[in-house]
Amino acid sequence: MLDLIQTLLDSFPEGALLVRERRVVFANAAARSCLPGLEPGAPVPDCLPLPEPGETASGLFSDGTASYTYSCSSRGEDQLVFFRLAPQTALAAPQMDGVLRQLRELLGEVVAVAGPATLPGGEFSVDSFNKSIYRLVRLTENLEYLSQAAGEGIRFCPVTMDLAGLCRDVCRLAGPLLHEAGVGLECRLSAASLLIPGDPALLQKLLLGLLSNAARAVEEGNVVLSLRTRESRAYVAVSDSGDCPDPRHLIAMSQHGLSEGLPLPGQGAGLGLDIARHIAALHGGALMVSMGLAAPAVTLSLPTGPLAPRLSVRTPNLQRNGGLDPVLIELSDVLPARVFGLEGLD
User: Fold this and answer.
1) In 181-240, where does DSSP find H-type helix?
2) Which helix (DSSP H) or strand (DSSP E) does residue 253 occupy?
3) Is the separation of the CB atoms in 314 and 159 below 8 Å?
4) What's the whole-model pTM score?
5) 55 Rama sector, left if φ>0, alpha if ψ -120 to 50, beta otherwise
């Protein structure tokens, strides 16, 4: 039976792995050409994160300068992994349509809110106006990010940073804001400090984007951001207490360019996860969406070394960006308008 499975996997043009207890049982020729060392009995490379046995997962991982999309299914103790080169990060046609539709909606909101201020006796909502501005800034920044990623490249400035400190600061600042939206945020750290090579600003953007997606999915409930380590990798997971989405949405969450339809109203422009995947790839990391019996969890896997001794060690402080709070920018789609009152923006 195993010989038949191996013959079948060898016929696939993409990389295929059969894994048991995180060790390679079989790797086809395409997999060995991409990731040398995939011999029977060898451990699965650290760059390829796997879900727990019995769960399914898909996402993106990087090895050197190459990035791959992958999927993993389980049957008992055996896990079957398929992977292929990931497409270059760029704005797909459905995403452009989603951007344009959201831009029209946001401009409509601005006009609807500002319009009464030009009429005698009209009422002007500062809170709603500010929220629309923050959402416009977020959409513009995300569009600019993908444009730079596909062109001249993103400014990537890694230092020796404290990932646990970043997680703690993100939760400290985002928690009270999400509470206003009816979402509880819990931070679970396996260590008080964890030094890794990374760009604090980009990782901050990634984590806030994942929290925003989780808050949108749960609506009113709980979100957990957790950090743990295993061997030479750090794992940051964002999970929520919401319902499991339909299969098409799961595919869109985990794979670049496979979503055929426009994002539904209220789901944003569909750029956030592509940006998160790109940031993970810059760090030599992986982004995995794992599906069990509950709602899916998004896990970021990052290497914990090597650390450059010339670089300064620091826990990043989340500073305001161009006069606007980056936390409010990244969470603007899910926060109520009252959070954006002038008193909260000083």
Assistant:
1) 200-218
2) helix 247-254
3) yes
4) 0.80
5) beta
| DSSP character string of 282-320 | HTT-EEEEEESSSS-EEEEEEE--PPPTTSPEEPPP---
Return the pLDDT at 186: 96
Query: What is the distance between the alpha carbons of residues 319 and 84, in angstroms, rounded to a whole number?
Result: 38
Tokens representing 274? 């592509």
CA R_g for the chain = 21
Contact 331, 74 (CB under 8 A): no
Write down how long the chain is.
346
Phi, psi of 268 (to 5 degrees): 80, -160
Phi, psi of 300, deg, nearest 5: -100, 125
More confidently predicted of 226 and 95: 226
- Residue closest to 195 by CA, chosen among 308, 284, 63, 49: 308
CA angle in degrees (0–180, nearest 5) for 207-325-116: 120
DSSP assignment letter at 243: P
* Count of alpha carbons within 13 angstroms of residue 161, beta-carbon side: 24
Q: How far apart are the first and last CA of the chain?
A: 67
Could you count the other beta carbons within 10 Å of the beta carbon of residue 330?
A: 25
Please give the C-alpha separations between residue 94 and each of 36, 67, 70, 97, 253, in angstroms, as whole numbers: 36, 22, 21, 5, 14
Q: pLDDT, tens digit, for every residue of 120-129?
A: 555 667 788 8
* Mean confidence (pLDDT) of the chain: 81
Map 57-105 to HEC letters.
Answer: EEEEEEECCEEEEEEEEEECCEEEEEEEECCCCCCCHHHHHHHHHHHHH
Q: Report, as an integer, the average pLDDT of 133-161.
A: 84
Pair type for strands 233-240 and 297-303 = antiparallel
Sheet containing strand 195-198, edge to edge, reads 195-198, 159-162, 313-314
Which tokens hold the place of 237? 């997971």
* Confidence band of 208 (pLDDT split at 50, 70, 90): very high
